[in-house]
Amino acid sequence: MKLNLFTITKKYWKEQIIFYFLTFLSCLLSFIIDQNAISGEWKIISKGKWTPNFKIFNWVVIKDFGKLSYFMLFMAVLVIIYCLIVIAHVYYAPYFANKISRNLRDKLMNKLFRLRNVAYDKKSALNAFNKDTERFVNMIVFVPNQLFYLVLSVIFGLILIKFENNKLIWAGLGYSLIIIATIIFIDKFLYKRDLKFQKASENQTKKENIAVNKRDLIIKKGLTSDFCQEYKKTVNYTWDKADKKEWTYTLSWVIPSFSLIPYSEFFFLPFVYKGGENAFLALRVFNKIFSGIKKMIERTRDYPYYFTAKKRLNDFLQLPERDDIQKNVVINETITQIQLKEVSFGYEKNKLVINELNLKFEKGKINYLSGENGFGKSTIINLLVGLYQPNKGHIIVNEKYNLNEINLLVWRQEKIAYAEHENLIENGLSTGQKQLADLNSLFASSENKEIFIFDEADNALDENNKKELQQRIDKIAKKKLVILISH
User: Fold this and answer.
1) Do 432 and 353 meet the contact criterion of CB atoms below 8 Å apart?
2) Contacts by 86-95, CB closer than 8 A, 24 or more apart
3) Assuming Cys at both sites, which of 193, 244, 430, 465 could form a disulfide with 461, CB separation 3.0 to 4.6 Å?
């Protein structure tokens, strides 16, 4: 399922109804309150007297309150109700956005651990969890709602000023269209320029990664000067695109927000001068509409990034995933041996790391895997835990279970205890202390595990702790299937 406004609305339709109903009520009450307040202001200013009444658009609901104090009390209650609705609306917006964000992040995390190819783009994955999710949710929740509020403002405004065919209404509508057209026109260029900047920035990042990771090779080949000149051209090109993007972004923000909208009243003064109460009311209505347009501009400041974020999220969610992780076959018997039969595997096509390997691991002894880096030791372990599938051959457990046909979640969680030189401890301990703490935690929580794998798990330990670890491994190996990897 692709992420877009339609799919989000379909999934969260109940929340959308509540959100947009609160938007409708807040907009409606604001116009009703403004109408009655403006009507009173105009009559007091123009005639010096006023009979308090209450209108809902063109319908007089209460003709005469009798006393001004009754009218003020009634309006105070209405304002309190309006404020409560606005509080609910303002709170519900981020609540709704956070709900979508939480569920989306859960979906991304589940996807991450089900990917078929673990050689994924880590930078794209991090962007998906952080910036992309935030930008997508903000645009999908706040912008359509702000647009809905703006449309309601136009509809209620036209009802309020009775659709009279006067110059002020047509001028206001025309002015609104000019502002909206200006925003759309500039945003279109902003989106295109942002895409060009993103591509240039990615190219620059690639150059920087090459420089950092292959610095010595560049020096040895005598390519330092050429590489620096090429990098300088790349940087200049990138920031030329950045300058153009920022210029367009500035125009998209400054022109509508600091010129077309704030000084719109001067444009309408000639129409109000002899237009009477309706013209005065219309001026306030259009000021309200222009205020909505300004908020819309603020909401759409990240508009170009939304499309990039949506594309990256959908690209990540559509990566192929393993469909065999939760199969029904579970091994309930004691694990006595694991055998690799003519197993071949490569991370890239036509480049095998392991070729037709035959290997057996047995319970009751330490099964050693040793060799230099690149020998394929860790790859064998990755195959045993089901992180990868062999390109060819089979991994057989207890001479009858094919590893590709069992439930891998149960296999990893209930059968395997795994430790390596890296760990997930994030406190302020030293590397050796972290490794020791990780091993102690492993032994304490793995009493019922049947397969113990140690992948260079002692490389940061001192000699005494290494000896103690070896003694514990020797003891476990008498009852369990133990695999020990070392250089």
Assistant:
1) no
2) 86/26, 88/22, 89/19, 89/22, 89/23, 89/25, 89/26, 92/18, 92/19, 92/22, 93/19, 93/141, 93/142, 93/145
3) 465
Query: How far is Cα 200 from Cα 210, in angstroms, rounded to an integer?
Result: 16
Q: Give mean pLDDT, residues 322-337.
A: 81
Query: Does 347 lie in the same domain as 297?
Result: no
248, 108: one domain: yes
267: containing domain: 5-317
Sorted by sequence, the CB contacts under 8 Å of residue 486 that are 6+ apart come out as 368, 369, 370, 456
328 belongs to a structural domain: no
Q: Which is nearest to 416 in space by CA: 406, 425, 426, 430?
A: 406
CATH of the domain at 477: 3.40.50.300
Residue type at 40 in one-letter notation: G
Nearest alpha carbon to residue 209 among 226, 241, 233, 231? 231
pTM for the whole structure:
0.71
Q: Which residues contact 84 (CB under 8 A, 6 or more apart)?
A: none
Mean of the pLDDT values across residues 30-37?
84
> In total, how many domains does the chain have?
2
| Residue 265 within a domain | yes
Residues 192 and 241 grouped into a single domain: yes
Rounded Cα distance between 217 and 239, Å, is: 28
d(CA 282, CA 160): 8
Chain segment 135-184, per-residue pLDDT in tens: 888 888 988 898 898 888 888 877 777 655 466 666 667 777 777 777 77
CATH number of the domain that 240 lies in? 1.20.1560.10
**Per-residue confidence band for 360, with pLDDT thresholds at 50, 70 and 90:** very high
